[in-house]
Structures are given as C-alpha cells and as structure tokens.
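tool=predict chain=A
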Amino acid sequence: MGKSIAVFGLGRFGRSLAYNLYDLGLEVMAVDKDPDMVEDAQDKVTVAIEADVSKPDAVKGLGVENMDIVIVAMGSDLTASIMAVMVCKELGVPKVYAKAADERMGAILRRIGADRVLFPEEESGERMARTLASDSIMELFEIGGSLCLVEVRPKKDWIGKNLRELKLREKQRINVVAVRNKKGTHTIVDPDAPIQEDEFLLVILHKKDLKEFRD
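tool=predict ok
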C-alpha cells in the first residue's frame, strides 16, 4: 500500500508536489483556504479540502494523524506554517515537512519541530514527489533530459549479494556508480563486494524507470 501524504497550500510548489504525488500512485490530501484552488484540484488528488490551516481546530479536523507525511507548503506565511507544523507534531504525524522562503524561516521551522525544510528554489515539486513516493529513494538529481542520479537504499533481496550476481544493469537498467557507507563516505563500487544493509547506492537510471524501480 502506498504512502498517504497531506499537502497544505496549493501555490505553485504545493500544486506541483500534490499532483505529481497522486500521479505516482500515492494517496494525497490537498488542503487550501482558497475555494478556487480546491475546486481545481478535485480531480488531480485523492481528496481536496477547503480549510484554513493557520487555525489549530481546522488542522485537527482534517484527520492528519492518519497520514504518513504532512507537507506544509505555505512558504510565504510564517505564522500559518508555524501553527500547522506544531499542531501536526502534537497530533503525532510521523513526518512533517515545511516549505521555507529563506534560511531564517527554515531555522524557525526546524526549531518548532519540522522534520525537514524544503526550499522551492532547490526542490522542484516533481523531483520532491519522486523522492517522497519511495521508501528506497533518498535523494534524486536530474542529470539530463532522460537520466537521473539517485541515492537509494538497497532492496532486501540485494543484501548479501554482489553486483556481478545481481546484474542490475542488464536486468533493471540501473548503473551503480558509487556506494556510501554508514560513515557517509562514498567509495568506488567493487563489483565483487556483497551489498550491506547499512549502505546506500548511488545509481544512474532513466526517469521512465523510476516508478518501476520504486515498485
């Protein structure tokens, strides 16, 4: 079963994020106080709700405690963002991400409990959606029109096997270029070394293969 994600704020970044997450097969709740934004999103997400998330009671009425992730995407409204992050953390949402307009706002959001701060100039909604859609993908960087560089957790059936055995390039069109160990150091791939559970793999693959790889 896919993740369930709530996106608060349907500005440019929030819309892109919510719509791409839904297209990737996730359950998406989109929330905004603008009725026109909510109406436009009705057929592009699982459920679109009109609510003012700067008000604690409005957030509590959304049922976000049942979501895996809440993304607070109102980067231009610090007060609303603070309130929404705090209420979601109080409700026990496992992960709360928040969009920030600048580093100062980001520092404030981290201080009041945001698990991750997003900066729109660095994170496109499409790229962030692809990352959030997978438990395996840690980071994703586009390196061309059709290719991307992705840091991933090894799949369970890869652990203990080496790259020669797995034949990932031939079978899944994945090219492993480096390994990051638990100390955070990237090393050249040894094709005969067994893959460890606490390692991360840096791989190159086609964007069209991302969904298949996630599944």
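Residues 85 and 92 are 11 Å apart (CA to CA). The chain has two domains: 4-132, 137-214.
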